[in-house]
Every structure is written in C-alpha cells, then in structure tokens.
Design goal:
Helix content is about 30%, strand content about 30%. By secondary structure, it is of the alpha+beta class. The protein has one domain (about 5-125): Gcn5-related N-acetyltransferase (GNAT) (Aminopeptidase, 3-Layer(aba) Sandwich). Strand 4, helix 3 (about 90-105) and strand 5 form a beta-alpha-beta unit. The longest helix has 15 residues, at about 90-105. The N and C termini lie far apart (about 45 Å).
Length: about 140
C-alpha cells in the first residue's frame, strides 16, 4: 500500500459522493449533496482525500472556525475510510496528518461529531485522544 493524503480541489468534490452516500445510508440525492458541497466550499470548508496509490479510498471534510471554548478549531466532518482499508492503521496516520494540517493553519483544537451507532469509529477517536464533550442535537425546521 502507498497511502497518502491530499486536499481535494473544488472540482473533485463529486468524487467523495459514494462515501457520503454510504455514510448517510443514501438519504440524499447526489444532486442535492453536490449543491450543498458547493455552498460548503464557500463557508470555510475543505475536503481531504485518502489515497492508496491513485485510488481514492476515503475522505474527511474540514471546517475552520473560532470557538469560545476551544479557540481556533478544525472540525472533522464525514470522516470515512472504505471498509476494506479499515483496521490497518490508516485512521491513526490520517488523524496525525489532520492534526499537523490544522496546526499549520494555527488551529488549537480538533473536534468532531460521530454517529452514536458508529462504535468502531469511537474506539479510534478515543485512542487518538478525543474526549466526549457533549451531545450533538438536531431539529429539522423545514
């Protein structure tokens, strides 16, 4: 394996849609997701691809913001690695890369949300030093 990480250019965001569809259990059309990603790109968002050679095998979105409780922060979003590449240390290596990348942008903290049912990811996040700070609540209003 030759694993490496790279920021996706805005025209490549569509390449992560199969991962987002799997992560969200296909709740949204590709067209809606593309529309949302285009808007996200304009709002302090970037996306990192995980590659084995030249094959995209995972991704993670990054949101940059200032938080009153953590200072300059990078929030990891839709952290995804294809199932056949899991449990091989890629997640640990990727988090180390993400941490260094966030530090290069003067971030003081990494944070993320994780679906409650995704216990396998929780093990990774705990091993990497993440702590549970609270719950993420959502109320759809439209």
């Amino acid at each position: 394996m030759n694993i490496h990480f790279s920021i996706l250019d805005t025209s490549s965001v569509s390449s992560i849609l199969p991962f987002i569809q799997e992560l969200t259990h296909r709740k949204f059309s590709d067209a809606l997701l593309l529309e949302r990603f285009q808007k996200m790109i304009d709002q302090n968002y970037e996306c990192v691809g995980i590659y084995n050679e030249n094959t995209l095998i995972g991704c993670c979105g990054l949101w940059y913001q200032m938080r009153h409780y953590s200072g300059a922060s990078c929030e990891l979003d839709h952290f995804f690695i294809q199932s056949e590449y899991r449990s091989q240390g890629i997640g640990n290596t990727f988090i180390a890369w993400l941490e260094a990348h966030a530090q290069s942008k003067n971030c003081e903290a990494l944070e993320l949300n994780s679906y409650v049912a995704n216990a396998a990811s929780h093990k990774l996040y705990f091993r990497e030093g993440f702590k549970i700070l609270g719950f993420h609540f959502l109320k759809k209003i439209k």
